[in-house]
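pinging the channel bc i need a second pair of eyes. not urgent but kinda urgent?? the chain im working w is below, pasted from the shared doc
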Amino acid sequence: MRQVRLLAVAPRPFDDELLSCWHWRVASHYSTSPQQVESWISGSRGGQNQNFFSCDFHPDRDQTRLWARACRIRKPDLDRLSLQSAGRPKSSFVSDPMDRGVCPVCLDEDAEEGRDHYCRRSWACVEAVVCPRHGGSSAAARQTWCKSCL
């Protein structure tokens, strides 16, 4: 059996984070891409270049297991980050990350609480018109929801 390569720094995933976002947060600690991290931890050349649906909706089980072991995280904790765990069809999510909404108030709260910014799974839902957390609190908060700052 081959030795598993472990990453020295691997941020824990947030409960409502997208799997692809977590991959990028881990990779950013090494100033690289998720594909390069995956290539290094697997010991092979060229990590998989997964698109949105293969990474966030249908993640490769072997790759998820590999990431979990390398980052010392339980595999079920990574499995729940995929949109597949939401029990909804692919058509109920916005496939292109550039077309998803972003809540600057959520991002400001991340910074205020000293944590990394991250993409919420709820932002990928097609019905997301306003931030589920800040949209109902006031008219000013509803206006902060934007489509990647149009």
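so The two ends are 50 Å apart (CA to CA). and Confidence is low (pLDDT under 50) at residues 136-150. — does that match what u expected or am i reading it wrong
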